[in-house]
Each structure stands twice: as C-alpha cells, then as structure tokens.
C-alpha cells in the first residue's frame, strides 16, 4: 500500500497508435503516445492502481501508479569537447571587456 502524499509516478497512454496525427513519421505512428508524470499521491493506493496525483505545480493528473519515490534519470549525453572550455573562454573575454569599460575605452 502506498500512502497518500507519497511522491510517485503515474503512466497513461495518451493516444493509441491508430489515433496518432497523420503527419507524424511512420515509425512514430506504430507506437502509442505515452505520458509519465511525477507528483504527490492524492489517496492511498496499490501499485498498478488507477490513481490521481497532484504535480509540483498543482496540476491534478490521473494514471496507473508505476513507481514510488521515482528517481530522475535523464541526462544530456556525452560532453561536447568544444563546449567544455567555453565557460572559461567567455569569462576571460568578459573579464577583459569589463576591464576596458572600467578604463573608459
């Protein structure tokens, strides 16, 4: 039993494959449009039950209870070598420009 107020994730099929828009790519048309949303459980429930949750911004969403205390597991991929040093380079440029402005140039 999962207690009311627990941080959970729900899952719901928003559109079945036959309901997808005609302009979506062929491979996309073959799969359902799925939704996964995290929020606070509105009432006690069991895993797999249809439930309502309230998201962090106060939206009420329904779906099948799939996880309790779900982690955030997304990432931004591997670092791009050209971007690794750009922060220092920009600060160096801004620092020089800042010095020039203070000197009245």
UniProtKB/TrEMBL annotation:
Query: Which Pfam families does the UniProt record give?
Result: OrtA
The lineage's top-level taxon is Bacteria
What name does UniProt use for this protein?
Answer: 2-amino-4-ketopentanoate thiolase
Q: Look up and give the organism this protein is from.
A: Candidatus Zymogenus saltonus
- What are the top taxonomic ranks of the organism? Bacteria, Deltaproteobacteria, Candidatus Zymogenia, Candidatus Zymogeniales, Candidatus Zymogenaceae
